[in-house]
């Protein structure tokens, strides 16, 4: 195994130092290290972060390998600075059995670019009718700890209660897609002034907030861990703040796009901006940014949702919701938060690794720690060209935008997956 001596790197924004990576771990740190056998990387001006961890990735395999595979999504993740991703269960077949989660887990190991941790479905076929085999998925080789029907809400309160009770035994977590389905029938975008102007059916903020309010109360009643996917409204932030103050075991994520883009984008009628939950207002964005700084929202998760061309380049009403995220998330975080490296490390690596219980991830580079890390050039700016993305899909909302920051290298257990900004395999 090649050793790497990373020279003059700022670890999470601290004074520059050297890092020696050997045998899969950070072997030494300090100024002026020597290691004659090591490959030297000059990292002057670069920042080392613990490898990013995405709690919400759609990899589309099995079933829609034309849109993404475990391998192509893993490569996109590595290029985005990630060393671990949690793969959502809305595949075809649905990841609601030990067999399917083991298949995804094995494909992730074979690709070997990031650790792929499958998420199991809460209900059979995501249909919301009966609980999936949560225990069998937890006991499988994939050791599933997060369960989610993402894309669908677990709308039945009794089933949600049972799911929360069930996973408590193995410290699992239910990740809820908060959307009261009766309030979003036929919805095409955020319900507000813009939807009225465009004459499109609205997805009201209260459809999200009502489910979060219900579920934090259920989680408190049961004493279980609840995670809220893609929080998108100011009202949701208020509900979460209240729940956290009461000591409810709830965590929450926000996506890069909900931190940056508003519902005004729908006026273009370009379905690349169609996403679930929908893009909201500038006031929501301000509240989400505040909550992220404060810790009411724990993490940034991408909700990387690749879609084939025919599912996106069509009329708005027929387009599938979702946008790419893995290869641009760190740039959007830098744009939104500025060079607050400790906050970025917390929200994009340490906290998601803790929530998912991913051993060896989310740890700042230090002697003895597994070498899962990424090197960022904060001074670089890049133009996003959809055709250059590693994802099999092209549905990025940032096409031709100039974004700050570039991932220069990513290491997974001491092996580079990205070097000089390019995937190693
Ligand atoms: N976030 C999205 O807009 N899409 C997700 C599922 C979902 O959450 O609707 C997808 O799988 O495409």
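Sequence proposed for the structure above (425 residues):
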């Amino acid at each position: 195994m090649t050793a790497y001596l990373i020279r003059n790197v700022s670890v999470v924004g601290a004074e520059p130092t050297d890092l020696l990576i050997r045998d899969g771990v950070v072997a030494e740190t300090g100024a002026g290290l020597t290691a004659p056998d090591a490959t030297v990387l000059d990292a002057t001006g670069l920042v080392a972060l613990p490898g990013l961890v995405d709690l919400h990735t759609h990899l589309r395999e099995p079933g829609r390998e034309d849109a993404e595979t475990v391998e192509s999504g893993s490569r996109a993740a590595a290029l985005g600075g990630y060393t671990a991703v949690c793969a959502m269960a809305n595949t075809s077949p649905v990841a609601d059995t030990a067999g399917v989660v083991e298949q995804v887990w094995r494909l992730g190991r074979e690709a070997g670019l990031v650790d792929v941790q499958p998420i199991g479905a809460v209900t059979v076929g995501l249909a919301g009718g009966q609980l999936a085999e949560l225990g069998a998925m937890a006991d499988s080789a994939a050791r599933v700890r997060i369960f989610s029907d993402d894309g669908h809400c677990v709308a039945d309160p009794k089933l949600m209660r049972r799911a929360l009770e069930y996973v408590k035994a193995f410290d699992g977590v239910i990740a809820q897609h908060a959307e009261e389905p009766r309030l979003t029938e036929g919805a095409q975008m955020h319900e507000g002034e813009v939807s009225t102007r465009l004459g499109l059916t609205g997805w009201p903020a209260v459809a999200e907030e009502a489910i979060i309010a219900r579920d934090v109360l259920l989680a408190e009643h049961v004493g279980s861990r609840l995670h809220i996917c893609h929080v998108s409204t100011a009202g949701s932030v208020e509900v979460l703040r209240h729940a956290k103050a009461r000591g409810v075991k709830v965590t929450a994520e926000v996506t890069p796009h909900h931190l940056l883009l508003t519902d005004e984008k729908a006026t273009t009628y370009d379905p690349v901006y169609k996403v679930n939950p929908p893009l909201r207002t500038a006031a929501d964005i301000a509240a989400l940014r505040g909550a992220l700084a404060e810790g009411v929202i724990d993490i940034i998760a991408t909700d990387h949702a690749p879609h084939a061309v025919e599912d996106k380049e069509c009329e708005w009403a027929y387009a599938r919701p979702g946008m790419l995220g893995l290869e641009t998330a760190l740039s959007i975080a830098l744009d939104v938060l500025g060079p607050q490296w400790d906050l970025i490390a917390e929200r994009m690596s340490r906290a998601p690794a803790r929530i998912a219980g991913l051993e060896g991830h989310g740890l700042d580079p230090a002697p003895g720690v597994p070498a899962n890390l990424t090197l960022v050039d904060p001074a670089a700016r890049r133009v996003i060209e959809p055709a250059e993305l590693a994802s099999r899909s092209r549905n990025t909302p940032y096409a031709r935008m100039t974004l700050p920051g570039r991932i220069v290298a990513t290491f997974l257990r001491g092996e580079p997956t990205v070097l000089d900004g390019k995937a190693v395999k």
